[in-house]
Amino acid sequence: xxxxxxxxxxxxxxxxxxLLDALGTGAMVxxxxxxxxxxxxxxxxxxxxxxxxxGLAELEGIEETAQGISIGALTVHRQIQINPVINSALPLLSxxxxxxxxxxxxxxxxxxxxxxxxxxxxxxxxxxxxxxRAQIEVAGNQGLRTVPLTExxxxxxxxLGTKTLLTRIVIPxxxxxxxxxxxxxxxxxxxYGSANAAAIVLRKPDGDLQVDLVVGAVAEQPVDLTGPLSExxxxxxxxxxxxxxxxxxxAVITDPISDQRGHAxxxxxxxxxxxxxxxxxxxKKIKTS
Amino acid sequence: MTKQYVGNSTSTLDHAAxxxxxxxxxxxxIFPNQLHAHFVRSTHAAAKIKRVDLSGAERVSxxxxxxxxxxxxxxxxxxxxxxxxxxxxxxxxxxxxLALGQVSYFGEPVAVVVAKDKKTALYAAxxxxxxxxxxxxxxxxxxxxDSNAPRVVPEWADNMLMQVPFGGGDCAxxxxxxxxxxxxxxxxxxxxxxxxxxxxxxxxWDHRESAITLYATAQNPHPLRYVLTNALRMPENKMRIVxxxxxxxxxxxxxxxxxxxxICLLAKLTKQAVKWIENREECLLTGGxxxxxxVDFAINADGRILGIRDHFxxxxxxxxxxxxxxxxxxxxxxxxxxxxxxxxxxLANIVVTNKxxxxxxxxxxxxxxxxxxxxxxDKAARELNMDPVQLRYKNFIKSDAxxxxxxxxxxxxxxxxxxxxxxxxxxxxxxxFRDQQDALREEGTYAGIxxxxxxxxxxxxxxxxxxxxxxxxTVKVDPxxxxxxxTGVTDPGGGNRTGIGQIVADELGVEFEKIRVVQGDTQSCxxxxxxxxxRSTIVGGGSAALAAQDIKLKIITLAAVMxxxxxxxxxxxxxxxxxxxxxxxxxxxxxVCYAAYTRNYDIAACIEPPLESTRTFKPxxxxxxxxxxxxxxxxxxxxxxxxxVVCEVDIETGKVSLKKFAVVHDCGKTxxxxxxxxxxxxxxxxxxxxxxxxxxxxxxxxxxxxxxLVDYTMPRAADVPPIALGHHxxxxxxxxMGLKGAGEAGVGGSAAAVVNAVNDALKxxxxxxxELPVSAPxxxxxxxxxxxxxxxxxx
Lengths: 289, 795
Fold this sequence. Notes:
The complex is a heterodimer of chains A (289) and B (795).
Chain A: E1 6-8, H1 13-23, E2 27-30, H2 36-41, E3 49-52, E4 62-65, E5 68-72, H3 77-82, H4 84-89, H5 91-98, H6 103-109, H7 112-118, H8 125-131, E6 135-140, E7 143-148, H9 149-154, E8 165-171, E9 179-186, E10 193-203, E11 209-216, E12 223-224, H10 226-235, H11 241-252, H12 264-285
Parallel strand pairs in A: 1-3, 2-3
Antiparallel strand pairs in A: 4-5, 5-8, 6-7, 6-8, 9-10, 10-11, 11-12
Chain B: H1 15-19, E1 35-41, E2 47-53, H2 55-58, E3 63-68, H3 69-75, E4 102-103, E5 109-115, H4 118-125, E6 129-134, H5 141-144, E7 160-168, H6 171-177, E8 180-188, E9 200-206, E10 211-216, H7 221-231, E11 239-242, H8 258-270, E12 274-277, H9 280-283, E13 291-299, E14 305-315, H10 326-333, E15 343-351, H11 366-384, H12 388-395, E16 404-405, E17 411-412, H13 417-428, H14 430-442, E18 446-458, E19 471-477, E20 483-487, H15 496-508, E21 515-519, H16 536-563, E22 570-573, E23 576-579, E24 582-588, H17 589-598, E25 612-617, E26 637-650, E27 655-666, H18 673-692, E28 723-727, H19 747-761, H20 776-794
Parallel strand pairs in B: 1-12, 10-11, 14-15, 20-21, 27-28
Antiparallel strand pairs in B: 1-5, 2-4, 2-6, 3-5, 7-15, 8-13, 9-10, 9-12, 13-14, 16-17, 18-26, 19-20, 19-25, 22-23, 23-24, 26-27
Helix pairs in contact in B: 10-11, 11-19, 15-16, 16-17, 18-19
């Protein structure tokens, strides 16, 4: 614990990454503070320097680019809920952001970047972002790189928040013909989800379904069921869809978490339930032209 | 006498300050050179303390003092128990503010650091080095009673704090004679009460008088002063306790907590003001309600309950100074609730373990009585294929049977239990729901309805303790006609000060706006016992009414002289004094008050100034002289209520959603409907929260896992369905205006109704959940087990 914390607020991204590189392990990056402030109040974290990134214009704004919608890391949950560009191009993301707990205060302070960097098993945004095939821009002293979120989550040396900064999230616009859903199961209104699932379903020209499906809050990281499910659908075209989802969940979710939101057996079973419900709801939303 | 205020939803005296965030709470007080304390707490549930090294903390700049248990024991005697178990035939132990030699629960205070600011204290506390030698912790009550179990208190022969039987009649014969025996095993989990405002103490040293003023979150300031001055070896009159606006109490702020005396000691040693504010993690260490029951009903074919047997285990955690353990005693004493059952065999096994000590929780054990009885009755209804409502009607005490002595010796004042239940069923449309239930099932909706009853003995008085039953108020009227009421009762936030103000305004015949009610300051208020047990309006309002009546007599005497009319013609209302002897003649209340103080040598010589009176209301019915069976009745008042709830269960996830709730209660006489209904709704939220989400968990070594409100999920607005409220008051014959309590009841009744509704919804699947809570994972597991069971039977 440190009694005399220092505070830095760089105005340019390159200054920020240089400073981070120079500071080493004692620095901690803060933006909306929704993750760190409670820990700070309890004395559980005590960096020697807080680096406040809220002054970095490079991390702000929502833009339409050739690669998709580019969302600045500092964008707060409330903006994601109400921004017209995101509403129309990424309705799944707007909906998932509205399911974040903590109420309006958290939605107005918490940022999408902070939510991702926390890499918290129970948080809401990641399953939707994975289903949307989000790419993450990361800035470090070596420059900028772009990496799919799924890969970033398994990297052990991304150094986010200590040496590198998450700057933007780039997401291809959803196919307007697709149906989508985000299902979250909570024991009570105030609790974290016991399981959640993001689904995007598109009917291909041949009539088959293309299902992007990610479940969260069941393992340390969101579990992308898309690949295994599509294999099963290809190999067993005549089996009931719910049975296929069940089978994939059973096979892929090998290490469910156990906490106050439910024991491991329950979590795995609930992942199956929300996955099926999300896919069913998404299918209902497919626009028939 | 016309009642202008009693019975109306008068706005509370302090609502504007509360709503606009301008109320002063205990933690808001700051004094010059204010110091701050931070506690070092045990990281083990059971361990010997080998060494406490304070030097790391003492070296931190800004630290004024650091102290361990050995040093604290030099200055402080053991904390007197709020209610010592030994008084009731149990075991006792010396309770220390800081652990001495060993720790017996996770989170027990081991050392304390005082520094110039909170942050420095927190930092320095992290540099206190405690060397532990962990020992085997015992966490379950059933393990703790094993003869080989480690002892929570090493000098005790076993872990049984107290084993106490309740009951009467011949239960064995009743079970012999009965047509059916229905056995119900239920487990109630550890829960906690979590007011928005946690505990806080700020002790200020007074050099001139060598005295302490303690600003405290305290429900019972005068008894707290007794306890603290004893522990501190100070004269009782050298301490003043001041309470402020309360952000909820629910029993948590009844005293006996180790921090209370210690903060006073730190002020005495540093000769400065020392403050401590409990954080949420510390607050969540407090808990209660954890019990395991085996309730057996002996029932005749016609549904008449002949006898009830309930031998239960209560896991009260480590010994503590608060009256927490007494909740388990009350669970037994409150049997058999509203039912007319004379043959009763209850055995309370009150067991200590290495969990944190129980602290009082709203309901005070009576909520577990309701759970045991009401879950048991519903199980009987299911097994005997009877309607659960009709089964209750067959066994309720009849409304003409009061006063009614229960099998445990309580004397119930009044009630119309069936009438209350009937009104509740109308509010929730019980018959309408039953008509639809099967159709809903066919559509795939598993809906259920649950009812429950709760009888709540309130206003308790225990012989030989500062749980006194009676209370005292002073009413003073100024020369300008303004009225100050000083009460010995306190207001945990429920609004009794407003209710008491309404009563006094009506008794005196003055405007409510002229009344000021002062509570919770030992220096200005009469000696009193604070708030607990739904008593404050009964005894605070009753004593204030008596005092107001005294003053009114003086005013009438004087007014009659001044108006030259007979006293019996005088009427006072709305601040105007009139006489039936002369329709045109009037005086203001203010004129007469001024004369009372200023004309004492002529016209006002007929009365003795000042316009002040101090009176005590001592409710009857309480009996501390044991009857021929050795039983006493510590309670003057028995509020009661019926609860009904409609739920739906998602059988794929186990999630319970509540659709509709109805409550009808009998609080004797309603002083202020909106306040009473607020209390009732709060109790319903308590009951719902406790059954759906709230649970304190520890790991296998006894470390607490539930450390914040993200894990201890209290109900949000969306979890609580619309609540239909009704009143069905039967006046208590022995209290002022017929009052019964209205602040404590309702936790157990609403909890039991929720569980009964879930089991009603799942009856068609042969699923029954009696291990609480009925949270989604537990309900899901029960559904899985039943469906696996039925698959096996089929194959």
